[in-house]
Design brief:
Number of helices of chain B: 20
Helix content of chain B: over 70%
CATH architecture of chain A: Orthogonal Bundle
Distance between the termini of chain A: 61 Å
Number of strands of chain B: 2
CATH class of chain A: Mainly Alpha
Radius of gyration of chain B: 21 Å
CATH topology of chain A: Helix Hairpins
Order of helices and strands of chain A: HHH
Shape of chain B: globular
Oligomer: heterodimer
Radius of gyration of chain A: 17 Å
Chain lengths: 102, 479
């Protein structure tokens, strides 16, 4: 049985990361932007796991656990902020979050 | 785990425990007496500072090389704890006045400082990432702590979305570096690059992504667009803490990572950093000219100062100058932290309900009604410009010297020209204070007065004896 070459995983993770970064820049809904950021983090997770297995080292896989934990903490704070903004503005469209400018 | 492991992180462990306990103790403190929480938080910071100072001159590597205690971390951590004390001092009366006095405010500051201190001690990219998030997440909450106020919430969500976005870049950069070198420890990354085992393209891409992530954190061009909005919208006491604390932590991480993990690609990266530094100085200083709101003006000024500190990285390409560049950089951070806390304390003294009193025009007449406060503000503005006799000038001198020695003449020239531009908007504040008629209303709070008074004295006195402070900064070397 042939293993999938590590390059394939890295290319996939680069594609995921790009989709995530573009999503942050293009989408206007705060929740979707947030989901795109999570996609970027998971792209990094995929790359770390793939490299970890290619290098026969556990460091990368351990890092993935840390990233998942931190992402969960970020979700807690991020969703709370989005809910707070929605209560005040009745909208989470980032184009309407524009009191501050200049 | 052994004793050395715990010793290397002792101040951080104490501060973490203290802030977690403070969160519980705060439940039993009456809502009208939240000042007690502030005092307890400050006591925790003072205790941690004592522990940090007691470790001066020691070098301990702990937790299998994940963290390091050395001169650099001791110096930066002392500066961070000082920033924390100042942040509590400016917040004490202000958050009561704004009606946002909550016990968790102080715990969040403490947690954020824990992250910043861990950042200065990191010796592994995993620790860098965890420290980055530990310092950022409390700051997101602090920026939005005045909830139901649209400005504060907007600042919080903008800071959060862009901070998380930049975190994504750091993580992906770390993943690429790990793939290229097979390790996340700084020493092993450097060794792998030096022996040529690492895939150069992957390392460069990873280092660039990490640089982008930290560029966001310190507000370097072209990643600066969140800074003015967040600085303006966040409660001013939080802005003061962000301006100093987050910048110190971000730059100390950049210095540590690029000096110990990527010394061999510094030659490739230094020109890029020089261009970023030049753009940051130009954009920050030019955009500040047009500002009418003092918080926005100081936000652009903080971008400009990030540019000056970034100049130090241009000198990294020359290994002989690396230590000089690092000490000039952290000396400038000290000067910036002292000056900026003083400035923010005065801004808080003039701020009134609903964001009134924040226009630069509102400072008219301050020279007549509050001569001492106006004199202190004059010192801070001179220091930010870099005019003697202030600490800002000494900081700039050390930085420019390193940049010139590194043969980046054009960069030093841009630095001097943009300093001249900055004189226009800093001196305008002085002109308005003394030359224009007005009746500014100020708030007299003993802690605010103490902060701007003490910072003004420090700005002048330390500039008269810079050698001893610089000697301390030069001793703060990385091992």
């Amino acid at each position: 049985m042939n293993a999938v070459p590590v390059n394939y995983y890295i290319i996939l993770s680069a594609i995921l990361f790009t989709i995530g970064a573009l999503g942050v820049l293009i989408r206007r809904n705060a929740l979707v932007i947030f989901m795109s950021i999570e996609l970027m983090l998971n792209a990094a997770n995929l790359a770390l796991v793939a490299f970890s297995s290619a290098n026969a080292q556990l460091d990368g896989q351990i890092f993935v656990f840390f990233i998942m934990t931190v992402a969960a903490a970020e979700v807690a704070v991020g969703l709370a902020l989005i809910v707070a903004v929605f209560r005040t503005k009745k909208s989470i469209d980032v184009d309407q979050i524009n009191v501050l400018k200049g | 785990m052994n004793q050395a492991d715990f010793y290397s992180l002792l101040p951080i462990i104490v501060l973490t425990t203290w802030s977690a306990l403070l969160l519980i103790v705060d439940l039993f403190i009456d809502d009208k007496k939240k000042g007690i929480t502030a005092v307890l938080a400050a006591a925790g910071l003072a205790l941690t500072m004592g522990l940090t100072l007691s470790q001066t001159g020691q070098t301990v590597i702990g937790f299998n090389g994940m963290v390091i205690l050395d001169g650099f971390s001791t110096f930066v951590n002392t500066l961070l704890l000082f920033s924390g004390l100042m942040a509590i001092s400016v917040a004490y009366g202000y958050i009561k006045r704004r009606g946002i006095e909550r016990g968790e405010y102080y715990s969040l500051i403490l947690f954020s400082i824990v992250g910043m201190m861990l950042m200065a001690q990191a010796r592994d990219l995993i620790v860098v990432f965890i420290a980055l998030e530990m310092l950022s997440i409390p700051l997101y909450v602090l920026a939005a702590i005045d909830n139901s106020n649209a400005k504060s919430e907007e600042a919080g969500i903008k800071y959060f979305l862009l901070g998380a976005f930049s975190g994504g870049f750091v993580v992906y950069g770390v993943a690429l570096v790990f793939g290229a070198t097979g390790s996340t420890a700084f020493a092993e990354i450097a060794a792998s690059i030096a022996t040529g085992n690492a895939e150069t393209l992957l390392v460069l891409a990873g280092a660039a992504l990490i640089l982008v992530g930290f560029g966001f954190k310190v507000g370097a061009v072209p990643f600066q667009m969140w800074t003015p909005d967040v600085y303006e919208g966040a409660p001013t006491s939080v802005t003061a803490f962000m301006a100093a604390g987050a910048k110190i932590a971000g730059f100390s991480a950049l210095m540590r990572v690029f000096a110990t993990a990527f010394p061999d690609i510094a030659v490739d990266i230094a020109p890029v950093l020089a261009v970023i530094a030049a753009l940051t100085m130009i954009v920050g200083n030019v955009a500040a000219i047009a500002q009418k709101n003092i918080k926005r003006m100081l936000a652009y000024s903080s971008i400009a100062h990030a540019g000056y500190i970034l100049m130090a990285f241009a000198a990294f390409a020359n290994p002989a100058l690396r230590d000089d560049a690092i000490s000039a950089g952290i000396f400038y951070l000290v000067a910036y932290a002292i000056t900026s806390f003083g400035t923010w304390a005065i801004v808080i003294s003039l701020e009134k309900e609903d964001g009134k009193g924040l226009a630069i025009e509102d400072y008219a007449g301050l020279g007549r009604t509050k001569p001492l406060m106006a004199a202190a503000m004059t010192i801070f503005m001179l220091s930010l410009t870099g005019i003697p006799p202030t600490l800002g000038l000494i900081g700039k001198l050390y930085l420019f010297r390193v940049v010139v020695e590194a043969q980046f003449m054009w960069l030093a020239l841009i630095g001097i020209l943009t300093s001249l531009i900055s004189a226009y908007y800093y001196l305008r504040v002085i002109v308005i204070m003394y030359m224009k008629e007005g009746e500014p209303e100020t708030v007299s709070e003993s802690w605010l007065t103490f902060t701007w008074g003490a910072m003004a004295v420090l700005t002048v006195v330390l500039s008269l004896i810079p050698a001893s402070l610089f000697a301390w900064a030069s001793g703060a070397l990385m091992k």
